[in-house]
Design goal:
Blueprint: H1 5-11, E1 19-27, H2 46-56, E2 59-63, H3 64-69, H4 79-87, E3 95-99, H5 110-113, E4 120-123, E5 138-141, H6 149-158, E6 163-168, H7 170-178, E7 184-190, E8 212-220, E9 223-230
């Protein structure tokens, strides 16, 4: 059994106003990856939600380390998803936004080489001026020696991208939490005990706990799909 578009829109709506939504998957014992990547955690229903959240966002934000580790392709959507966006009055494709302090990115990776829309890379003013990625992306400095995520979010809002989706990694998610920028968490729990040394979905500086409300809990063949939103 799969989720229909109407079911997905009911449970994961496009927000009425600005929102930063994070989407993560973890094992039942909290591991964020198997053998270093999230693919080993995926199961029935997960990809449909993953694709839906991309379809309804204005911009997808991801850390450079995740781009490299997960070998990100270009942010392309199916024909039906593109048609839905156009019918909803949205651009055909969301923006692809990568956060990188070092600009250590391969311009030949498909996320750049096959991009339907020129990606944005958020960096800082001390980043290498001769990084090859500057030739294939719009590189924007926000911050002097580290990326100022709040400034990056404001910049995206100024460009009309107000429904933001973060797919990781844990360092970026932890930094967004520390900056108090996260409004929603969509968490898939895989029915696995992964063990090992895999980390949790967020890590970063200590920060006061933030209370969230559970908006729904869905299941598909032992996969658990949770959506939390700020009170």
């Amino acid at each position: 059994m799969i989720f229909t578009r109407d079911e997905l829109l009911a449970h994961y709506p496009r927000a009425d106003g600005p929102v930063l939504r994070a989407n993560f998957i973890a094992s039942a014992d909290g591991a964020v990856a198997v053998d270093g990547v999230s693919a080993g955690l995926q199961g029935p229903g997960d990809k449909e939600i993953f694709d839906h959240l991309r379809t309804i966002c204005d911009a997808l934000i991801v850390a450079a380390g995740t781009v490299r580790a997960e070998r990100y392709d270009a942010l392309r959507l199916t024909a039906s998803d593109r048609a839905w966006r156009l019918a909803a009055g949205l651009p055909e494709f969301p923006l692809m936004v990568i956060v990188s302090g070092s600009l250590d990115l391969d311009p030949e990776q498909l996320i750049f080489a096959d991009a339907p829309v020129r990606p944005i890379v958020l960096t800082h003013r001390a980043a290498p001026a001769d990084a090859p990625v500057r030739a294939v992306a719009e590189v924007i400095a926000v911050g002097d020696t580290e990326v100022d995520l709040a400034a990056g979010v404001r910049l995206l809002h100024g460009r009309g991208a107000t429904r933001l989706l973060c797919e990781g990694g844990p360092g970026l998610f932890g930094a967004l939490i520390a900056a108090d920028l996260v409004d929603e968490l969509c968490l898939t729990v895989a029915p696995l005990l992964a063990g090992g040394a895999a980390g949790r979905i967020a890590h970063g500086p200590p920060t006061p706990p933030r209370r969230m409300s559970l908006r729904h809990a869905l299941t598909r063949q032992d996969m658990l799909f949770l959506r939390y939103a700020r009170n």
